[in-house]
């Protein structure tokens, strides 16, 4: 019995001494903490910055006192600076259209200049906006002269690459300060544009 107890004690000592000889007893560390991955948030498009572009449009003009009408193609340049507030975009800019629009054989509309603001809803890679501002009509012949006025309308712009967008605008204009007394004009233009954004 004594012999069995010694063998048992020696075996138990070997079991306990094994880990100690191999570098000591090991204490299990804390369980690893599992973290949920951060949610992926789409970056979207930031419309903040300047843009310049070309536009091609069509204009229809009618006058009162005397009653005259005319329509023709317009070709122009545009430059804007926009600021993206997240869900809303606000900007301002300049447009210049040149044309050779005959108005009833009395005069010719040579150019339209616009300075205005625009604001609308950010739809990520595109946006829709309202626009309004000051406009000037320049004519030649017939003693009609030029006129200041205003414009208002709607527009849409969409990115086709990171730096190029295409757009469309429908604008209404009124002019009432020509040299020819009593002459008032209203004009509607529809145009498409290609814009370089930087």
Description:
The chain has 198 residues and is mainly beta. 10% of the residues lie in helices and 60% in strands. The protein has one domain (49-197): Beta Barrel (Porin), CATH 2.40.160.20. It is built from one helix and eight strands; from the N terminus they run H-E-E-E-E-E-E-E-E. The chain has an eight-stranded antiparallel barrel. The longest helix has 20 residues, at 2-21. The radius of gyration is 37 Å and the shape is elongated. The mean pLDDT is 87.
N→C terminal distance: 95 Å
Mean pLDDT score, rounded?
87
Number of helices: 1
Order of helices and strands: HEEEEEEEE
**How is the CATH topology named?**
Porin
Sheet/helix structural class: mainly beta
Second rung of CATH, namely the architecture? Beta Barrel
CATH class annotation:
Mainly Beta
Query: Main β-sheet: number of strands, strand sense, barrel status?
Result: 8 strands, antiparallel, barrel
Strand content: over 45%
Gyration radius, rounded: 37 Å
Number of domains: 1
The helix content is 10-25%
Number of strands: 8
Q: What ranges have pLDDT less than 50 throughout 5 or more consecutive residues?
A: none
**Widest sheet: strand ordering:** 1-2-3-4-5-6-7-8
| Shape annotation | elongated
Concise summary:
The chain has one helix at 2-21, and strands at residues 49-64, 68-84, 88-103, 107-122, 126-140, 147-159, 164-175, 184-197. It has 198 residues and is mainly beta.
List keywords for this structure.
198 residues; 1 helix; 10% helix; eight-stranded antiparallel beta barrel
